[in-house]
Design a protein that fits this description.
Elements lengths: L2 E3 L4 E5 L3 H12 L4 E5 L8 E2 L2 E4 L4 H4 L6 E5 L7 H10 L5 E2 L3 H4 L5 H15 L6 E3 L13 E4 L3 E7 L3 E2 L20 H10 L4 H19 L8 H22 L2 H5 L2 E5 L5 E3 L4 H9 L4 E7 H8 L1 H14 L3 E3 L11 E3 L2 H21 L8 E5 L5 H9 L2 E5 L4 H10 L14 E7 L4 H10 E9 L9 H4 L3 E11 L2 E9 L1
Parallel strand pairs: 2-3, 2-6, 3-5, 6-7, 11-13, 12-14, 15-16, 17-18, 17-19, 19-20
Antiparallel strand pairs: 1-8, 4-5, 9-10, 10-14, 12-13, 20-22, 21-22
Helix pairs in contact: 6-7, 6-10, 12-15
């Protein structure tokens, strides 16, 4: 590990906010020279405290003699520090002071500990230490983030919520092996209790008529009188009890977690009671759910041979990954859209589930083809294929990673249909090539969902030429500071 004398260096400060102001004062009092500030808004903020402001991408060409400089990263989002430090290191800088992500996650090597101590001294104690370790790449630590406890035959793990299905119940199809993200209606009921806003009555009526009544009739329950009110009252009491447990005793959900087993089509099916607990946690926004699973089934899910291929690819290529990967070894991987499953895939899946139920009085996904063109490493295509849809999928970036993820989750090439098929619904992002957008629009029979914010350009204008009428906004969220919207078009 190599060290340098901090006060002998010329400072460049990333961030012109309040922390940057405090840090600049600390460096100034220590007699250090501040040569410039760094900010992504350098085209607007040309000067700060009498010093020039450079864009991060300008440093490589603007600064010569890089070993004579030290970069101090002061932006408030400390979780972004390590990626910025890696960017500056790739530009030739080796003296960088920041909050290492490995330290934030409870690890970190000796170099990271030294850099963190200097960062805390400057920003928290307003002093400049004599020495600091030079930058060293923080390798991502790949390991099983899901495993909590283990016994001889059974494991306690936390699985991605989008992979969970209710238990099989052939007598009541709307209860049987339903995906909690796509079509298990109890999630919507608990979400209505949670938000208590507009649409609550509609959600309650849907829960009663679509979900509770079919089960009650099958089991020959008398639903006369005030049965509806008593039902909702009992569900609310369950909700408030679980809300208390969530706040005061989260171990309740761990000690009383469900047991699951693999489904033949992908994902995991509950084999014990606990659908309400799972529904509640998902309604509360929990992305990982505690479950018990047999050791052999879990080993199959881990698919370690392919995990090793993935790790080797990641370490050699350093790809920018868009969507979170629902696999224990990659839970903590830095991705563009960590909440992609919940904020985009879940609402789109629920919209389509509702349309298909209204047309068939059941979730007849196997009758429908979806055309999906999104650069999400194939995530959405795999999810809808798991539900039972026929899927035509287009990915134009990170194709090698997409193929590895297909292998990781046991999907073969022929699990996805080829181009040219008519589709009930096309789901497209605005960074797709024009010819793909055009073809999908032409082959769409009913709906087209247009996701904007991935790229800018005139491609969306083509949709009106295909007799597609914009109906409403389905989703609005934010990634990387940009607004992402999904709009529904109908033919």
């Amino acid at each position: 590990m190599t060290h340098y004398e901090i006060k002998n260096k010329i400072a460049l400060i990333y961030g012109a906010g309040s922390v940057g102001q405090v840090a600049s004062g600390t460096l100034d009092r220590a007699g250090m020279i501040i040569a410039a500030y760094i900010d992504r808004r350098a085209d607007v903020i040309r000067e700060h405290n009498g010093k020039p402001v450079f864009h991060p991408d300008q440093l490589k060409s603007k600064i010569t003699g890089k070993d004579n400089y030290v970069i101090l990263i002061t932006i408030r989002n400390v979780f972004e520090h390590s990626s910025l430090a890696a960017h500056f290191a790739s530009a030739g800088f080796k003296n960088i002071i920041y909050k290492p992500l490995s330290i934030l996650r409870g690890g970190g090597n000796e170099a990271a500990e030294s850099i963190n101590a200097v960062y805390e001294a400057i920003t928290g104690h307003f002093t400049v230490p004599e020495q600091c370790a030079c930058y060293e790449e923080e390798p991502f630590r790949f390991h099983d983030f899901a495993l909590q406890e283990e016994s001889a035959e059974e494991l306690l793990v936390k699985l991605p919520a989008e992979l969970l299905f209710s238990n099989t119940n052939p007598r009541i199809p709307v209860w049987s092996c339903r995906n909690f993200y796509a079509d298990y209606i109890a999630v919507d009921l608990y979400a209505a209790f949670h938000h208590s806003g507009g649409g609550m009555t509609e959600q309650i009526e849907r829960y009663i008529n679509r979900f509770a009544l079919p089960g009650a009739r099958t089991m020959e329950v008398n639903t006369e009188g005030n049965w509806r009110e008593l039902l909702i009252e009992s569900r609310q009491k369950v909700y408030y009890e679980m809300e208390y447990k969530l706040c005061m005793d989260y171990d309740f959900f761990v000690k009383n977690c469900v047991k699951v087993r693999p489904r033949s089509g992908g994902g995991f099916e509950l084999v014990t009671s606990g659908k309400n607990r799972v529904s509640f946690l998902i309604a509360k926004g929990m992305r990982y759910i505690p479950v018990k699973i047999d050791r052999t089934a879990y080993a199959s899910y881990l698919h370690l041979d392919t995990v090793n291929k993935m790790i080797a690819y990641y370490q050699s290529s350093h790809p920018t990954v868009f969507a979170g990967i629902p696999h224990p070894f990659f839970y903590r991987l830095d991705v563009t859209a960590p909440d992609y499953a919940m904020k985009i895939v879940k609402p789109l899946a629920r919209f389509l589930a509702e349309q298909i139920y209204l047309e068939n009085e059941r979730y007849a996904y196997e009758r429908y083809t979806l055309s999906i063109g999104i650069n999400d490493e194939g995530y959405m295509g795999r999810f809808f294929r798991m539900l039972g849809y026929q899927v035509q999928r287009t990915v134009t970036e990170n194709t090698e990673l997409c193929a590895l993820l297909d292998e990781l989750f046991y999907y073969a090439t022929d699990d996805f249909i080829t181009d040219g098929h008519a589709s009930y619904c096309s789901i497209l992002s605005d960074d797709m090539p024009d010819n793909i957008i055009q073809q999908a629009a032409e082959n769409t029979e009913k709906f087209l969902i247009w996701i904007t914010g991935f790229a800018s350009g005139p491609a969306g204008l083509q949709l009106q030429e295909q007799h597609l009428v914009r109906r409403k906004e389905l989703v609005e969220t934010i990634w990387s500071g940009k607004c992402i919207c999904a709009y529904l078009y109908e033919k």
